[in-house]
Amino acid sequence: MAKLKNIVKQLSDTDYKSIYDSLIESNAEKSAHLLKALRERQLSDSKIMVELEVNANAYYTLRSRLNQKIEEHLLQQMESPRTDILRKVANLNEVLFTKKRTITIATLKKLEKELLDYDLANELTVIYKSLKKLHVNSPDHFQYSQLYNRHVAYMLAVDKAEDLLTEYFRKYGSYFLSNDENEKLGLSLLMKEMQNVARIYESHRLYVYQSCMLVFHRLFVEPDDNLHLDGESIEDIFKHVQKIFDTYNLDPLYYHLNLIFEFLKLEYYNHYGVYHQVEKSFEEVNDAATNLLINYPFYTFAARFLITKTERHLRLNTEKEMYAENESLFEDIEPDTQDVPKHTIHVVYRALGCYYGGRYEEAAKLINSLLNDVSLKRFPFVHMEVKAILALQYCMLRDFELFNQLTSSIQRQIRLFGKDECENVLLFLKILKIATSEAKREKAKKIMQVVPKFKSLKLNYFAPTTFIRMDKEFVENLTAIDAPGS
Q1: What is the DSSP string of 19-66?
Q2: Contact 461, 221 (CB under 8 A)
Q3: Distance between CA 59 and CA 22 in Å, rounded?
Q4: Chain-centroid distance, C-alpha 191
Q5: Which CA distances in Å does 476 have to 290, 427, 448?
Q6: Helix, strand or coil for residue 142?
Q7: Which terminus, N or C, of the chain has the lesser number of Cβ atoms within 10 Å?
Q8: What average pLDDT does the segment 234-241 reach?
């Protein structure tokens, strides 16, 4: 909320009035009231909610939409020199066919300088192609031919870097659900290829693309690499990237990629347990969470944010708020069953929110839909994990027939891979089996004997069972289950 308040207070009077009038004209009175309250009155969130007659969930949605409206307005008002340059390049034929050669060359040289400042390789090839033609009978023809060739190659390098980013984060999804060493090797090779591409040219754009991948790689694929690193530290990378963003502050791509680096900062601080910094970064990212989850699949693996968000809820004992938050968080997210890793994490996160909200039937429905909509056969351990979470819901619903069918299915999978490979799921099922056993004596004690062993296991793949809080309430809920025949 602090971020939105600061933005509203820093708006110019003209921008504020324009946004306010726009909201009134579009019948968004509540958003207009919120804007006015943040701008002109010192009210707490709770008082604003009372005035607007909305609950916390609706208020969160209202706040997010207002933030989006302000961003859209500011973007529209931004007089970008970059846009002006692109317009001039698009109209270059008017210059070539209507102006004298000397004026045309001077215009092209000026555009060349501006395009170099913005690192716009595609447009530079147009400029050099024209300069090459204009100097066809001049010794400078060779120079412009070389520049043209170089920038065509650079343009291809930028395209290659973008393709590598897309492939890397697509592949990471598979790695996160499998922890397969071949997938890990593939990620490391993509990382090296990206570094090779970025090394060819002195380019801030290639550096930013490389940094998107490199920071993520050091945090989630080869974390030990941080301990014996010869190159830049992650914090130095953040500083360097921020300097680039500040220098090219009108570049629309960098404007949007800023969210990626806020997300990476959050993950960096969370990785090293610097929780006071986590809270600062979390607010920035959480305000744009839906946008991050929808619009950035080619620049990061945004579903990781949901893992961090879950961990934070568990750390702060706020997991029961997940269900209310999820309504607005997933309101605009369309399920993408073709992206199995992302879809799996999204659905499991929502199911966990239902579980902590006491909506076990809804959680079971979500997980069953997931298992029907996508095939998790490529990711057998995650498949077992997801089914174990479903078994917990059946347990809480006292649906012992479905529970027994499901646990039998999971146990068959465990036998295929061996108990040592599936110890976490085996222990989780053991807890549920104790809860549903006919023997009533010392259920709580037996469960508590298993819990520490379960918690001691460290898993490198997506394991939703680790997001189940195994506290006193958990044990009480399980021991309250009356098994059939008991």
Answers
A1: HHHHHHHTT-HHHHHHHHHHHH----HHHHHHHHT--HHHHHHHHHHH
A2: no
A3: 20
A4: 19
A5: 35, 18, 11
A6: helix
A7: C
A8: 95
Calculate the dihedral angle through the C-alpha atoms of 102, 105, 107, 110, rounding to the nearest 10 degrees. -130
Number of H helices, E strands in the chain: 25, 0
CA-based Rg of the chain, rounded to a whole angstrom?
28
HEC states along 276-294?
HHHHHHHHHHHHCHHHHHH
Q: What angle do CA 326, 255, 175 make, to 5 degrees?
A: 55
Is 388 a residue whose pLDDT tops 50? yes
User: Taking a C-beta distance cutoff of 8 angstroms, is the pair 356, 320 a contact?
Assistant: yes
- Residue ranges covered by each domain of the chain: 2-77, 81-138, 155-302, 303-486
Residue 283: predicted pLDDT:
87
pLDDT average, residue stretch 464-471: 94
Give the pLDDT band of residue 251 (cuts 50, 70, 90): confident
Banded model confidence at residue 77, pLDDT cuts 50, 70, 90: low
Spatial contact of 211 and 237, defined as CB atoms under 8 Å apart: yes
Please tell me the distance from the alpha carbon of residue 245 to that of residue 349, in angstroms, as a whole number.
33
Retrieve residue 22's tokens: 């726009």
Whether residue 159 has pLDDT greater than 60: yes
For tokens 């071949």, the residue is 182
Contacts of 223 (CB under 8 A, 6+ apart): 271
Query: Closest by alpha carbon to 193, among 203, 185, 205?
Result: 185
pLDDT at 228: 47
Are 321 and 313 in contact, with CB atoms under 8 Å apart?
yes
Question: At residue 428, what are phi and psi to the nearest 5 degrees?
Answer: -65, -45
Q: Is the dihedral of CA 325, 329, 335, 337 positive or negative?
A: negative
Q: How many CB atoms neighbour CB 212 within 10 A?
A: 25
> How far is the C-alpha of 27 from the C-alpha of 40, rounded, in Å?
20
Q: Give the whole-angstrom CA distance, residue 113 versus residue 305.
A: 40
| Structure token digits, residue 312 | 């934070």
DSSP of 182-237, one letter per residue?
Answer: HHHHHHHHHHHHHHHHHHHS--HHHHHHHHHHHHHHHHHT-GGGGGG-SS--HHHH
Token output for 154: 């650079």
**Is pLDDT above 80 for 63?**
yes
Give ∠ CA 49-52-57 in degrees, rounded to 5.
50
- pLDDT tens per residue, range 310-364: 999 999 999 999 999 998 888 888 889 999 999 999 999 999 999 999 999 999 9
